[in-house]
Write a structure and sequence with these properties.
single chain, mainly alpha, 11 helices, globular, transmembrane, Fatty acid desaturase, membrane, transmembrane helix
C-alpha cells in the first residue's frame, strides 16, 4: 500500500529540510488562550443565535439558525481534533475541560476519538489504519453508478447514515493510544444527567430538541467530516 502514497508521505522527519522542521516546530505546542477563545466564542454565537430564533419565532429564521448552529458544531469538532494533538489545553484537567465544552455535547470523548485518530496517523494507509479500513468497500469505490451515488446522498440527507457513522467513531483494535490522564467513568454520564435536569427544570427541552438535537442529527455527516471520521 505504501507504494501508492506520495513521496512526501513516505519519509520521516529526517527527510525534511531544516527550514521545514523549523516551520513545523513553530506550529506545534498548546495554545490555551486561543483555544479557549474559539470554544467560548462558538458557544456564545450558538446561544445568541438560538435566543434570537426563539424571540422572533419565525420558521425561516429558525431554519437559518439551525444551519448556522451546524457550522458551530463543526468548530467544536475541530477543537476536539486539536485537543487530541495536544494543541489546546495541557495539564491534568485539559481533556476534562475540552470534554465538557466540546466533546460531550457532540456525543464523543477526547479519549475515544484519540484512539481512532492517532492510530490513523501512526498506521496511515495500512491494515492498522482504522480510517483507511472504514473508508474501504463499495461505498468508497469510484467511479460508482449513479444509482448508488443517489442512494448515498439520500442516506446523508435524511440522516440514515447516523448510526453507521456513530459506530465508525469506535475502534476495535489492539493499537490503542491512551491519554496522559484518564478521567473517571462517572464524569460523562453525570454531565448528560446534569444537562437533562437543567433542560427539564428550565422547560427548554423543546428548544434543545429543535436547535441542537435535530440540527446535530441532520448535520452529523458534516461534523464527522470535521473530525476526519467520514
Amino acid at each position: 500500500m505504501s507504494k501508492c502514497l506520495p513521496l512526501a508521505l513516505l519519509g520521516d522527519k529526517n527527510s525534511l529540510s531544516d527550514q521545514a522542521r523549523a516551520e513545523i516546530q513553530n506550529l506545534s505546542g498548546a495554545q490555551p488562550l486561543a483555544f479557549l477563545f474559539q470554544v467560548l466564542s462558538a458557544w456564545g454565537v450558538i446561544f445568541a443565535a438560538i435566543t434570537l430564533a426563539v424571540y422572533l419565532d419565525n420558521i425561516w429564521m429558525s431554519l437559518l439558525v439551525m444551519v448556522f448552529v451546524a457550522t458551530r458544531l463543526s468548530i467544536l469538532a475541530l477543537l476536539v481534533h486539536e485537543q487530541v494533538h495536544f494543541l489546546g489545553l495541557r495539564g491534568k484537567y485539559g481533556d476534562l475541560i475540552v470534554n465538557l465544552l466540546a466533546a460531550y455535547p457532540l456525543g464523543i470523548t477526547v479519549e475515544g476519538y484519540a484512539k481512532v485518530h492517532l492510530a490513523h496517523h501512526k498506521y496511515y494507509f495500512t491494515e492498522n489504519d482504522p480510517d483507511f479500513l472504514r473508508k474501504s468497500g463499495i461505498d468508497w469505490t469510484f467511479p460508482m453508478s449513479a444509482r448508488r451515488l443517489i442512494k448515498l446522498v439520500a442516506s446523508d440527507l435524511f440522516s440514515l447514515s447516523f448510526i453507521k457513522l456513530l459506530k465508525g467513531k469506535r475502534l476495535d483494535s489492539p493499537h490503542i493510544f491512551k491519554r496522559p490522564y484518564s478521567l473517571p467513568k462517572w464524569v460523562r454520564p453525570t454531565f448528560y444527567i446534569g444537562v437533562l435536569a437543567i433542560l427539564i427544570y428550565t422547560e427548554m427541552w423543546q428548544v434543545f430538541l429543535m436547535y441542537w438535537f435535530v440540527t446535530f442529527i441532520d448535520n452529523f455527516s458534516y461534523v464527522c467530516t470535521s473530525l476526519g471520521i467520514q
